[in-house]
Amino acid sequence: MTLFLEQVLNGLQFGTMLFLMAAGLTLVFGVMGLINLAHGSLYMVGAFAAAAAAAATGNFLLAIVAALAAAALAGAIVEIVVLRRLYRRDHLDQVLATFALILIFSEGVRWIFGSFPLYLDVPRALAGAVHVGPLSYPLYRLAIIVVGIAVAVGLWLLINRTRLGVQIRAGEADREMIAALGIDIARLYTVVFALGAALAGLAGALIGPIQSVQVGMGEPVLIMAFVVVVIGGIGSIRGALVGAILVGVTDTLGRFLLPIVLGGFMDQASAMSVGSALASMSIYILMAVILVWRPTGLMGAH
Amino acid sequence: MPKPILRINGLEKSFGALKATNGVTLDLYPGEIHALIGPNGAGKSTLIKQIVGEIRPDAGSIDFEGQPIDRLDAADRARIGLARTFQVSQIAPELSAVRNVMLAVEAREGRVFRFFRPVSRDLDLIAAAMAFLHDAGLGERAAIHAADLSHGERRQLEFAMALALKPKVFLMDEPMAGLSPDGSKRMTAFLSELRHTAPILLVEHDMEAVFALADRISVLVYGQVIATGTVADIRANPEVRTAYLGDEAA
Amino acid sequence: MTARTTFAAALSAALLASTAIAAPVKVGMITTLSGGGAGLGIDVRDGFMLALKQAGDAGAEVTLITEDDQQKPEVGVQLADKMIQSDNVDILTGIIFSNIALAVVPAAVKQGKFYLSPNAGPSQLAGKGCDPNYFNVAYQNDNQHEAAGEYANTLGYKNIFILAPNYPAGKDSLNGFKRFYKGELAGELYTKLGQTDFAAEIAQIKASGADSVFFFLPGGMGISFIKQFANADAGLPMMGPGFSFDQDVLGAVGDAALGAINTAQWSPDLDNEANKGFVAAFEAEYGRLPSVYASQGYDTAQLILSAQAAADIADHDAYHAALKAADFPSVRGSFKFGNNQHPIQNFYAREVVKRDDGVITNRIVGTAFENHVDAYAAECPMQ
Amino acid sequence: MSRETILNVAILAGLLAVALGAWASGEPFVVQLATRAAILGMAGVGLNLALGYGGLVSFGHAAFFGIGGYAAGILASAAQNYEPLMTWPVELPGTTSMPIIWLTAVIAAGLIALPIGALSLRTGGVHFIMITLAFAQMIYYFAISWPAYGGEDGLSIYVRNSLGTLDTMSPLTFFLIAFALLLLVLGLVLVATRSRFGLALAMARQNPLRLTSMGVRPFNVRLTAFVLSAMAVALAGALYADLNRFVSPTMLSWHLSGELIVFVILGGVGRPCGPLIGACIYVLLEQWLGGLTDYWQFPLGVILLLVVLFARGGVIGLVTGRNANA
Hints:
With 302 residues, chain A is mainly alpha-helical.
């Protein structure tokens, strides 16, 4: 039971991390209708910036700030130089352009930082585990959950309580309307894209200390984030949150439970092998099931 | 009187708090033009969309040739003979005019999933499409890309496609919209003849055309039919005058 | 004066003679130089180049063509075709990953080219699929895992938890470990390949009552696991094959790996002359400690150089004999080929330690196997 | 003849000439490159049916490429190892006969494309892109973790499969086989897009509302195009497996889906020969840039970016000066 509880926590933590990725993706799509494959590259940029800053200063907070700044800056530059020209194009051009950006980012980062994974460790203050009764849980992972929730709340406040939020909502509802409201669309788009990029960079910086900071690290996460966005409904931040938690918990519990369940009616070795094969497909199966039920996702517009 | 070919019973549709269609009952008889008029936002387009099956009503039923068609989707309804023309012409801009119409002929024949024979060598198909283009007055422009047609010509192309479907009923959403006075006049003459091919349920803002064409008129206000009758009935109806015509007549 | 001239003449004649034997050899290196696995390929290449450079004139007799396989098997096959058909190479080498080796090697050796593996050693090529033209200069894939299993007995582990990714090399790894390990298994897990979050697995390890954990997780997966495991306060000793704790990994995980035991056929502190020279030269040349991959690349080049000194590539059989003799000063100390042309060598247990200058590296703490022969050699029909 | 037709004939003739010339001058590797361009071009032509003509931006066509490859790999390895393919309900032997392998690849891909397409086509636009990607990933992970057919190690076909009495191991013969199939696929795609179905597909892309109002469900038309396109890509995949004599999950990876899209856009969307030109250019760029620097994907990315931004309509658009889908 303790183990199960711990696995649920693990699922939540994985989910909050996916949320940080998916929120930026879905925000950018909701406001400017852009599909951004290079979102995973911004995650990588965040992690590398954090690792470089941590190595230089030894301060984890500074590393986070560096990650936010680097990813937001990279995002803003990409938006101004490239993506701005693509909003009116069809999705096909966007797919190709952002695919090209992945190549540029990956090789560019490798050029600058070399081919070996970088060092980035959990800050001393957050190292180790907390113990509650029989349950012990890594403090750093708890911190990620807290940050994830804080970001979710912050985004909610931003969208519902600020002027920028009004503009974002207007942009989602009706592109012409924001022009009519006298809003500088070009600036709004740059800001929104940089915000999405910063969220991805934050995810990268937070995950860097417990995973490998290396080229290509963003791609598996990007595809997971796509699944989250599709499940939650494209353009919906609330959907991204629900989808992320759902995917996080499904993936974690699938890895944990499937071999055990299958072990009930087949021998251990094949239960292990079939179970892990199924577990690696579990979130895609979840997605397919949800799409049969609701083609536009859980919170998608109809 | 003969039986109605299309009958709408107590149709209701709400969008949130807005009742776009509020218990509408209408019918259409063979050989007639039944005009549907009403101020902007009265729910005319919503009603048309429910008849063709693009959106589902919350309540009520639609009968076509005496059979309920509520369970049929938009494509099925088109196939049994409900042809629709759009307020904004719906065409394939990258195809030539005649190709647009050829597709309509194919669709009516139910022979869309043929993969091998190039349509450019399908002389019967081309001839059939050309005939409808001529009927719609666009024969000269058959080879032009639809994107390069003028607004009026697109409207003609739209009609050629509708004719090619050989429907039993036409549902027309503002066919006069955006036409020049001259164009409207020709469209009026065209529609007047067309009613003998198949009856028309006509949504239109151009009152001159409506009064010239309609056998019957229904007035839709806030999702409700407040009056149905001949041109004379409607002109004389005090409720209609205050609710709708009054403003324009004044 | 005459005496000296005669001596010089004799010397140059001898040199000329030796160059006459060693007709230039063309070596095609297909290795991973881009993407996530690039670090390993770069180390193999750098080790190889270092050996050529140190050999001076003899090194210049080896023409090296290097190409990037992008870690994609089909690209590897295309490059091999190009090198064989267009560049007319005599020897192929360089491949890091077993799946690429399996795609490239069988066709290449059938076309009469030598393939010298500086890393990958899939079981298929060690057993029934062995070939006279195929030499493995590194190890058979199972070896490091077998050594870990054996050394787990030495360490007195009784209830170990083992995990690896769900792909063929992962299964070979755990099977290799179990072949020599005598204690109980607290659990056995296969993860998704490429997975980077192991929270669920670590929770299971902690709950299993294991006294230790053995894992084989290549590349970024291993880095993630080590960091997360250290951070979970599990308090269990970690073990793994050498590649899970090698120099490329240690730089990225830092203190999290300290104390972990791992097994490999080589270590930077291995005490022999060749190795001391190699480690010092590598650090001087590239400014970083060599990894086990670099040592393998270095030995591969040395093997070619030794064959060059003894035979002409035009004489295939003689060259084969020269390669098989493996007459070179390996950085591993003792080195010879078995009947299946895979190394018979020692495997050491290494511990991850922090040097006084703060660099984290491995130190030998014991020997797991002496002159170890791989498990598939008996299936190979060659003598 | 229009400039585009001249260009199409020129590229096909050019590819053939390069292969024959290289063979005559003893450059078998160049023949191999030409074969690779022909096969990847064929996959691009197949994808173009869905993507260019149908407007369905599938980011998961690598799945079908891989399924074609695995059909070849599984059938061939079963035959080469004298093991039956399956024993239940009937015992089926493997085969090394190319035509049977091609047929199997095409049918298998069609059967798998049907449910994937049916589910994905319930949505459109960005949803469609992401969902096709996710389905392809699902198949990718299945291939990696399912041990029966080599998993991540892939499957080797030690000798190319056979076609009658031809020596398929000869690079030129194999090129000619691939080239002939490329012509066949190109021809079929060309015919299909000019048929009655092609008209309906064009309307489904340009104006689905109108198509519905004609009584034809755009869903059916799109699904047909999706499945046909998957089948063409699978045929290319089966040939690719034979070219490399090897199949692995990388044939199913999302990078490959991206590359297939690159071929289509690079050459020109909705142009019959566009993807072939795109594939040829891509193969050349890869060779050329790969020789210049380890970081060759960086300039490749920059070139692709410039094409998207400034060369709308791809290379054919540049040459002929107009954009097919403007």
